[in-house]
Every structure is written in C-alpha cells, then in structure tokens.
Amino acid sequence: MKHTDIKCILSSADMVGTSVVVCGWVRTFRDSAQICFLELSDGTSFKKLQVVIDKNALIPDPECTKLGASVAVKGKVVKAFKGEGNELEAAEITLLGKCPPEYPIQKKRTTLDFLRGIPHLRLRTNTFAAVFRVRSVAAQAIHRYFHEHGYYYINAPLITASDCEGAGEMFRVTTQPWNARYESEEEYFKNDFFGVKAGLSVSGQLEGEVAATALGRIYTFGPSFRAENSNTTRHLAEFWHVEPEVAFAELPDVIEIAEDLLKYLIRTVLEECPDELAFFDSFVEKGLIEKLTHVANSDFAVCTYTEAVAILEKQNADFRFPVHWGSDLQSEHEKYLTEVVFKRPVFVTDYPKEIKSFYMKQNPDGKTVAATDLLVPGIGEIIGGSEREADYGKLTAAMRERHMDMDAYKQYLDLRLFGSVPHGGFGLGFERFVMYCTGIENIRDVTLFPRSVKNIM
Ligand code: ATP
Ligand code: MN
After folding, report:
1. What is the pLDDT of residues 90-123, one digit of tens each?
2. Ligand 1, atom 22: nearest CA belongs to which residue?
3. Domain 122-445 - what CATH class?
4. Which CATH architecture has domain 6-103?
5. Is the distance from CB of 193 to CB of 173 less than 8 angstroms?
6. Ligand 1 test: best mutation among 200, 239, 349, most atoms within 8 Å of CB?
7. What is the pTM of this model?
C-alpha cells in the first residue's frame, strides 16, 4: 500500500499542504458537535498523528473510530491548530480492520503484569512500543560500533557439544523419544541425533576465541540459552548476548572496550530515541535521562574484588548473605557497590579463581584471575568478561583441578599450542542493557516472548 509514515508527517515543514495517505491504528477518539479527532499510531514514532475530521464534510464510519481499529486516512497535512508540528485534515477514511470492544488493550487495564499475559498485543501500548524501538536502535548501534572499530561479526553455533562451564545450566538438544531406553548413558547419546550429548549454547565465547585468534577483533551477537532455575527479574532462559573477543588484549583493554561500547550505545539511544526516553523518564524511572547523560560523560569506577569485599564486610549486618573473601557476590552486594558506594557503573576486577571459570587468566598472586564484572545501578551485573589464560600449561592445570575432560577441549587447547596470544573479551546481556536504558525493571518486559521457568507463552 502506498502511504506515508506518521514520523515523516509530524515535524516536517515541507509536508504542510501536501496530500497524503496515512495508515495506522486508532489510539483515541474525541467527538464534539462540529469536529471529531482521531489519534493514529503506525509504529514509526512515539508521537501520534492527530486526524481532524470536519463533520460537515465527512461523517466517519463508527467502526473507524473504535480503539484499536486499523484505518487508512487520505487527507491534507496542515500545521497543528494547537502546539507544535503537523496534523492531518481528513478527506476520506477507509476501514482496514475493525476492533471489537473485547480488545484487551483498554485505557484502564494496562499494568505491566496484565500485559505480560498478552504478549502478542502488548506492543500496541506506548510503553512496549517504546521499549522495542529503543531495543532496535540499540541493536543497530552495537553492529555499527563494532563495524566502525574494525571488528568482524561472527555467528557462533547455537547447538553445541561442548558443555563448557554452564554444565548444569545447559538445555539438551535431542531427538530421542521420551521413552527411549538404553543400557547406559553412553548408548543413549550414541543413538541420539548427533551421536553425542548436545545442547544449546550458553555462550559463543569459545568459538569467539577461535575467530579472534585469526581475525584479531570479532564479536558475536546472538541468543544464548541458560536453563537457569532462578525466577528473577534479570534472568531469562533465552537471552541475547553480545560477545566481543579481541586478540592482543589484556584485562585493562577489555575494560576500556566495555566502557567505550556502553557509552556509545547510551549516547546513540539518547540521540535517536528522545521521545521514548522522555516518556520513560516521566512514567518509568524519574531522572532516567539525567542518569544516562551523566553515565555517557563520566568515567566508570574500577575496584578489585578484594577492595570490594573489604567495603562490603563493613555492611555485613545488612545483607541477607554476609560476604567474606572467597564468596561470590550476590545481587544485593553488587547493587550496594554500584548504587550506594560508587553511585555509578563500576568494574569489579580480579576475582578469586575458585568462583570464576577455568579459562580466565591466572594472576601472579596465585589466588585471583583477571576477570571483571561491570555492575550498574538498578540491575547489578550487566557485563562479565576477562582476559583469557593463554598459557597452555596453566590452562591445562586449571582444567585438571576442575576434573575437566581434556579431550573435549582439544580445539580450545590448540589455540594455546599454535601461536598463542594474550586475548580477552566479555559478554554483555542485551536485555539487561535495554532495561538499563529504559528503566524497565523486569527483563520479561524488554523481550518479545520471554522464556523462563514454566513460562513459554
Ligand atoms: P548472573 O550472575 O547475573 O546470573 P552470569 O555471571 O551467569 O550472570 P555471564 O556468564 O557472565 O553471566 O554472562 C554475561 C552476561 O550475560 C551477564 O553479565 C548478563 O548481562 C547476561 N546474562 C547472563 N545470564 C543471563 C540470563 N539468564 N538472562 C539474561 N541475561 C543474562
Ligand atoms: Mn558473569
């Protein structure tokens, strides 16, 4: 259908006086004696187009005025009678699809909770349409950032036989019937589709290292799967994962890249989604724009795990899980550090090796690894990264300590045998970033069809 996007009509002075066709959904209808008004949305912008109908010239079909109905309007663009921008004087209104009163998106019943029950319709609300416009802008910005900085875009496999660090959290991929019976586990998997145990990838990092040790700088941006049994507002079973991996890079380089990327993404969203952010600032998180502007223009904090624990221990009485050196940081600790202590994003570095993955570079102290998590206010961990252990002997020693199957990692170890280089990278949870940018507090509300424990609508 030939038609003009509402976004193009709203603010362009050139459009005034032209005749256009606009297609969209009715968001509000107001009636008076001589004139009535339709507010239309076509998804192209946060702002809606006001359609003015002079009842002396045109009596609209009542179906065209129902909330949620889809219509095409032919008319003339004029300067808005009130306020800025343009509106449309209707000459002809055609019904595309009617919308009966059972339409669940009604003015009054629009709590996020209620809308979660109708994922196929919730994008027609201001909030969700705005979230998904921001999400799209952020995704494009990720590709642009890496492309402009000389990274190659790699697609890591989603089905994998390496059960890596995420052993317990891996979804299995199988074509075996539910009642398949075999004498042993080995026989069961031998008869399965791949002939070995296979699952959905929890991370593209291992493949990312393969690519980075040939191409220099690479990134992946795709789904990762975790059978997390934790029903939190920050975890999904299927999430999108941004994973740059860089050769000839050490931990400080990894931190620099992560900070630069995040600031670039935030600046882009501020620039390209001003209406959406103004809306979130008013209705979702007061002060959001100021927060993001400040973050984009100031340095992130950096502190070691050891320093962080020293700070947290003073506060142990207030925590559900008291901290001591060696314990994993819980969400409450992460939030305390970034929200109360540093009041801005903070990289925590050099964690005890026991609580981090086998592949992280071992520090000379023999106790910690060159890892970093970036913590942000409101969310906690948004990025996890590290320099990777590039030394064959040290890596195999760490694997032996963890009783890992060396044969399964032959390819990974080969990278350390043949021209090994210092390298590192990180994983950014894309949904967590969108939460941070929009102020939305539940990860299920920044995902089209969220998947979590017992939930696959
Ligand atoms: P967390 O401690 O929050 O469970 P993690 O340490 O298990 O996260 P990593 O393996 O470091 O996560 O993954 C890198 C990033 O991917 C995290 O910093 C986070 O932003 C994101 N992420 C991890 N798991 C999930 C999930 N289940 N749902 C959404 N995002 C996730
Ligand atoms: Mn992590």
Report:
1. 999 999 999 999 999 987 767 999 999 999 999 9
2. 429
3. alpha beta
4. Beta Barrel (2.40)
5. yes
6. 239
7. 0.96
